[in-house]
Amino acid sequence: MSRRFSVLFVCLGNICRSPTAEGVFRKLVEKAGLLEQIEIDSCGTGSWHIGKGPDPRSLEAAAKRGIDISMLRARQFTERDLDTFDYVVVMDRQNLADVKDIWHQNGGTRPTLFLEYGQSDLVEVPDPYFGGQDGFERVLDLIEDAGEGLLGDIQERMA
Ligand code: 4NP
What we know:
By secondary structure, the protein is α/β, with parallel strands linked by helices.
């Protein structure tokens, strides 16, 4: 039995990008037959949306690709997450800076940018909150690509 891994996706509100990443990545992990070995969660650095479900535009964009994220509820990042998750992958530089401030004090898992695992030239998953539906489709594309790379990284460590 190979070792288990845990992955935490982090954005600002935990209602657009990171719940989408959680849903997309869970589907990739399921396809790979690794649901028992990989734990997946998401959170936001902000507190505004705690307890709320994903933004309707994220729900729609994910549903179009056969992914249901309607059961997810937003929670806020805590320093304990750096002790419990093997991967803390963050959507953009501002949120990475905020998580890193806590990491410098707390130690634990070093947070990284999610798109480091992808093929795109982009460094950040753009915040779609104040834009239109096309921004949410773009988020899905970037997340699918980086999710494949992240899963590959975990599988290499499992081997
Ligand atoms: P997320 O998007 O960080 O991808 O969940 C946002 C959600 C809410 C806000 C900003 C970004 N907001 O300002 O409330």
